[in-house]
Design brief:
about 0% strand; globular; mainly alpha; two-stranded parallel sheet
Amino acid sequence: MRRVAAQYVLRPSFVATFLLAASMSTTQAQSPGYFVPAPGKDNVQSKPKYECDTPDAPVITLDTQSKYKQDDTQRAMIDEDAEESYSEAVEPLRAYGRNLVKVANAYVRSNPKNPAAAACALTWLDAWASVNAMTDMRSKQAQFNLSRALSGFALAYMQIRNAPGLANDQKMRVESWLKTLGQQLVGPMDKNKGTSGRNNHRYWAGLGAAAAGVASNDKQLTRWGFDSARIGLAQITPDGTLPLEMKRGKRARDYHIFAADPLVATAELARSQGIDLYAEHGGALQRLVDRVLTSLDDPAFFEKATGTKQEAYPGDGGVPSSRIAWLEIHQSHRPSPEAEAVLTRKRPTSSSEIGGNTTLLFHGAE
């Protein structure tokens, strides 16, 4: 049989997209993600050292109140006095989260691997686990704070748990603590029949529970976390919006960005368990990400939809890299030239609530 040579004309845009995808695939192959594997014996430092600071004082009790004006039904207007009190109350928790993920990321970054950094991160986690930190949440807002904090704790632990030489008793205490915190989220949220039982608060609780469930091998907790994400995915409209976040008025764009955060991170955890949340509800998550991407530099869609000028971010008005750290995760599995263009300007992206430096974890280079 005579073979006929086929000729194709490749458009420049197609070639650019193909080359971009190829280069990203190469990078992704080197990216550990959250589940950093145990290193081979030839990839461990012979004399590991790490200057491990004393862990921040544990936060056991938290009683925070919303920073928004109570008579504002959109929860868009900030009460300055309430914001000051809120920031003061949560800063110790935030500081611990920031410092913890820095240590965990230091282990991921090390090459050869530095078990001393992993042991330091475990020591930090155990310092809070040993005294049952974050187990006395005295307000709904404190429960919301727990959701986001727990996400960061568990995702940091996943990065270091396979490091060689870690103390098993510490690992067992930490995993038991993470499971306990995850279970603390389930009851109150299942009883929450209000808006916050279906909006970004639920998705963050879902991520916290899913991360704690995966970290502690609790399948029921993990499943609840995934189902919480599904509550959000089911609401995403054909135009990529979340109706409950659209109600935030001048902060609608920001709350779509904020809601995408736990949904994407949960999809990453689900993928590790053989579940494709990216594909569910007709690829709803992609629609949300696309809507967010088009609004980062131009909030016109949200301004027209809400009839309200969208709140600009501090500084130059651009979206901070910490707000779109989740985009690095999405890009590692659903790459697009548009997202890559945004990330190129923002890298390294980092958020303590989703494991720290996502450029390191999912792009493979900072």
